[in-house]
From TrEMBL:
<dbReference type="GO" id="GO:0016459">
    <property type="term" value="C:myosin complex"/>
</dbReference>
<keyword id="KW-0505">Motor protein</keyword>
<keyword id="KW-0518">Myosin</keyword>
<keyword id="KW-0009">Actin-binding</keyword>
<dbReference type="GO" id="GO:0005524">
    <property type="term" value="F:ATP binding"/>
</dbReference>
<keyword id="KW-0067">ATP-binding</keyword>
<keyword id="KW-0547">Nucleotide-binding</keyword>
<dbReference type="GO" id="GO:0051015">
    <property type="term" value="F:actin filament binding"/>
</dbReference>
<dbReference type="InterPro" id="IPR001609">
    <property type="entry name" value="Myosin_head_motor_dom-like"/>
</dbReference>
<protein>
    <submittedName>
        <fullName>Myosin VC</fullName>
    </submittedName>
</protein>
<feature type="domain" description="Myosin N-terminal SH3-like">
    <location>
        <begin position="6"/>
        <end position="60"/>
    </location>
</feature>
<comment type="similarity">
    <text>Belongs to the TRAFAC class myosin-kinesin ATPase superfamily. Myosin family.</text>
</comment>
<feature type="domain" description="Myosin motor">
    <location>
        <begin position="65"/>
        <end position="267"/>
    </location>
</feature>
<dbReference type="InterPro" id="IPR036961">
    <property type="entry name" value="Kinesin_motor_dom_sf"/>
</dbReference>
<dbReference type="Pfam" id="PF00063">
    <property type="entry name" value="Myosin_head"/>
</dbReference>
<dbReference type="GO" id="GO:0000146">
    <property type="term" value="F:microfilament motor activity"/>
</dbReference>
<dbReference type="GO" id="GO:0016020">
    <property type="term" value="C:membrane"/>
</dbReference>
Length: 267
């Protein structure tokens, strides 16, 4: 039907420069055909060799592009995900996108005005799907589940070097510190982050993607009392590559012991 032709006549094909590029199907494909006649976006026609068992991935209709949740796409595959993230980032200046309960974050490599107290209060008490995707929405969901069900919650922050894991964890801690309205004047975020220079002094290294890359994992445990206010924090485990501590023998062990002692802190 015309409806099908309008929406589903475009595919993604691999490209050495752009990774994936879009193409329009110029001639009806019949099952078993080894060649797909394509019209590229620059107007050139291409006879594209295909394996009937593994045809090129279909492109989503334009009406779905820019969706804030990847699971809303008709076709969910690598080119669809990358295209949607690129459109949101490049055209709408949005760094956050959901994929179900997972938050995908693009590092803009600059400060954005989306982490102030007003934004924190806007997300406080809201359901995850009711607001634009944000690290604060994930933090709020964890905080709410902990308070409602009286059960421990975990937020896993993963990504490649320079993706923004350390900063994302910092924003989540800022959220907890603000919404839990701790009676103490000392900020848990500041105290937990105060250990960062120590860990980073011996645990960071320059990589091809990040001048100050954390070469260790952190498990930061934040403790709340029965009123859901922060009462302490503890950096429980980490994966420091101890070979990076350059001093030898006794001095090296002393530094590691002292460092491990500093990481256990109370607000």
């Amino acid at each position: 039907s015309n409806h099908a032709e309008i929406y589903y006549n475009r595919v993604w094909i691999p490209d050495p420069e752009e990774i994936w590029k879009s193409a329009e199907i110029a001639k009806d494909y019949r099952v078993g055909d080894k060649i797909l006649r394509l019209l590229l976006e620059d107007g050139t026609e291409l006879d594209y060799s295909v394996d009937p068992e593994s045809l090129p991935p279909l492109r989503n209709p334009d009406i779905l592009v820019g969706e804030n949740d990847l699971t809303a796409l008709s076709y969910l595959h690598e080119p669809a995900v990358l295209h949607n993230l690129r459109i949101r980032f490049a055209e709408s200046k949005l760094i956050y996108t959901y994929s179900g309960i997972i938050l995908v974050a693009m590092n803009p490599y600059k400060q954005l005005p989306i982490y102030g107290d007003a934004i924190i209060h806007a997300y406080s008490g809201q359901n995850m799907g009711d607001m634009d995707p944000h690290i604060f929405a994930v933090a709020e969901e964890a905080y709410k589940q902990m308070a409602r069900n009286n059960r421990n919650q975990s937020i896993i922050v993963s990504g490649e070097s320079g993706a923004g894991k350390t900063v994302s964890a910092r924003y989540a801690m800022r959220y907890f510190a603000t919404v839990s309205k701790s009676g103490s004047n000392t900020h848990v975020e500041d105290k937990v982050l105060a250990s960062n220079p120590i860990t980073e002094a011996v645990g960071n290294a320059k990589t091809t993607r990040n001048d100050n890359s954390s070469r260790f994992g952190k498990y930061t445990e934040i403790s709340f009392d029965e009123r859901n206010q922060i009462i302490g924090a503890n950096m429980r485990t980490y994966l420091l590559e101890k070979s990076r501590v350059v001093f030898q023998g006794v001095l090296k062990n002393l530094i590691i012991q002292e460092w491990e002692a500093i990481l256990s802190l109370k607000v």
